[in-house]
Amino acid sequence: MVKSWLNYACQFVLSCLLSISVIFAASAIDNPDAADLIGEFEKREVVYVIAIDDPNNNSREYLVAYDNYLLFLDKELNNAFTSIKSKLPKARYSDLIAAQRFWLKYRDAEFKLIKSTWTRDDFGTSAGISRGDYRTRIVKDRIIQLLHYAKSL
Question: Domains (ranges, CATH) in the chain?
Answer without folding.
Answer: 33-152 (1.20.120)
